[in-house]
Every structure is written in structure tokens, then in C-alpha cells.
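Bumping with the actual sequence this time:
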Amino acid sequence: MTSTSSDLGHTLLQRLDEAARCSEPGPGVTRLFCSPQHREVLEVIADWMRIAGLTPELDAAGNLVGRSDRALAGEPTLIMGSHQDTVVEGGKYDGMLGVALPILALEQLRREGHELPYGVEVVAFGDEEGTRFQSTLIGSRALAGNFDHDCLAATDAQGVTVKEAIEAFGGDPSAIASLARSRDRVLGYVEVHIEQGPVLEKRNHALGVVTALTGIERHRVQVSGKAGHAGTTPMEGRRDALVGAAEMILEANRVLHATEDFVGVVGKLDVRPNAVNVIPSEVNFTLELRSPSAEVRARGRETILEALAAIAGRYELELHTEQTYSAEAVDCAPWLINALQQACERTGEAAEPLFSGAGHDGLAMCELTDIGMLFVRCRDGLSHHPDEAITAADGDAATRVLMQFLSDLEVPGFR
């Protein structure tokens, strides 16, 4: 099956530009969960869904779900989608590509008169990045039936809880449990995403088929010392929380560099009282650790936390650590890997097998159903950055591959 359109990629980029305008002011795209910008982009996505023949609905967890007629009738359904939220000053394509592209693929199939013999849902998940509340995968966990209701008590920087934010957005936290999909009606979950790495670009391939997703964990670290006048307190004996935290961050970085298949970052740092002439009394920072191996991640974590405790003792600081998130590595389903590879081959694209070093909504959806992922080459492997970019040609290739995959998909009862 081939598309009659030669400009799907240009249409895709135009739509992603449209969605990117739903952002807080400033560089890149900043669109947080349950924010005004979140509400604004859902109106844009809902219009795309209607054009593609889908019926959009905001669910209790803040997801926008577009369903085909067969899905609404309760027939076996393939779920596709990704997240609409971003990091602060992020890019246009991370997440949103996986929302806009399947909608465009379905629209083109409809235009060509091709009716799929199964139901389809496209989901713009409410929260994957965890930027606002540090509690990620809220939307996909709700659909997968593994939603952690304790996360409703998490707060943002203004003290607003997840529960309060969802209610103000028009969702219903008390009804989130009812969103869990029935396993016997879900065919699988497929997500299209930018690679967020340099492999495809280095090998000059537009697309890659993902074999597995990395394991991720996040920690909140609090380092407490004692404030004092910066000019009158002797250097000897100071309990400077920032000096201790700085050494902790450097030690974590050293361990990460020294350990194979182990990456991580201290991405957020808050200093109190944050005054030019006061010794810092408290530092809070985040520590994120990733590895495809649970053993590597566990050993690395223990090494880092032991080093942090030793540094705290040396500077007479108090240390408190709390794990705020954890997700184990998961494999993509062999049958979906094979189907995506065949779709690539039938459309003349290389089917590069890749491991994902980033986490995605598939980390939650794998507990409901089989998962598959298609990666799209991104310039310089750059992501979570305003300069994030893909080409129209690669977007066109990915759309055609997904159309081929959807057309060829064998469904139980139709094989």
C-alpha cells in the first residue's frame, strides 16, 4: 500500500508548528500538565481528530482520547499516541509527534477509502514528563490500570496538588480507576517518537524500530546545613549546604561516568535562602538514574547514595533522600517489532533496531498490553531543547510506514 500524497511530511510539520504555539512565553515549548496551554493544545488536537474520523473526549485523568467508530462500539482496538506535555523550554516534537502523526496517518487512510477492520484510539496523554508534579505517566497509568492514587497528593511549586489540578482542568480523580482498559479488547499499543539520540543520524536512516525501553528511577535529595553571615562566619566549621551538595553532584557524576550502561542527571537544584551574602542552609536537588539493567542501576544507586551520606557526614550536614519514581526496563513485543520492520521494508525504509534510552508511556502501557515503538531521526540527536528538529521527508516516511503497518495489521479473528 502506498500513499497518494507526497506532502504528508509538510502537513505534519505544519501541525506540529501549530501545536507548538500552545506554550508559555519564552524559548522552545513549555506546556505543563493541566495548564492553560494544555487546555489550548487539546482544542487543536481535537480538531485534527475530527478530521480523521475520530471522536475526541477528555477523560477523567486529563487525557484526550480520539476513538474510531469501531472502538466506540467496543470492538478489538489498537491504541496509539504519546504525551502532549513538555519539559521547560522543550522542543516541538518530543511527545507531540506521536500524537499528530497517527492522526494524520488515519486521516490519509480515510481519504483513500481504506477502512481498518479493528478499532483505533489515539491518546494525547496528559502527563509523561513529570515536570510540574515530579510524578510521571499519570495518563498512561490510568489507561493501563496501574494508576497510583497516592500521586494525587503530590504538589507543584505553588502547592497545588495533582488532585486539585485535574479537578480544575475538568477531570475527575475519583473516576480514574474506571479508565482502565479491558485487556481482551486491546490489540496493542504503538507509539511514534523522535529518537532523542544520534544513532539514526549517524547511520543515515530515517527510522528505527525500538526493541526495549530503559529502566528509570528518580530521587529527591535534601541537604540541610546552617545559615550564617557570609562575611562574619569563619570558613572553618561552616555547615554550607551548597558546598556539600556540589560535591555530592560531582561524585554522582563520577560514578555515572565510571559505570557502563548507566546514565543520569541532576536536573533541578533549589537553594535556600538563595541570598548573595548568606551561607546556604538548605539545598534540594533531583537525581535521575537510567539503565537497561536493573542490577546495574541498583548497584549504581547504592554507590551514589553511600557517597552522598559520607559527604554529608564530612561537612556535618543532614541528608534526606526519597525515591519519587521508578519504572523497570521493558521489552517491546516481538510481533509488533516484526510488523513495524515489515512496514518499513514494504515502504522502502531501513528498519534499524534500536534500544530506547528514554522512558515513554509504554513503560506504563506494557502492563496492559504488548507495546511497539517507531523512532524518527532527529537533528543532532537533540531533544528536550528548543532546537529539536526533524525533516519533512522523515516525517513523511514515518507516516507512510505507520499507514502500511495499520493496513497490514493482523487482528485476532481476522487472521
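The C-alpha cells above came from a reply further down the thread. Confidence is low (pLDDT under 50) at residues 1-5.
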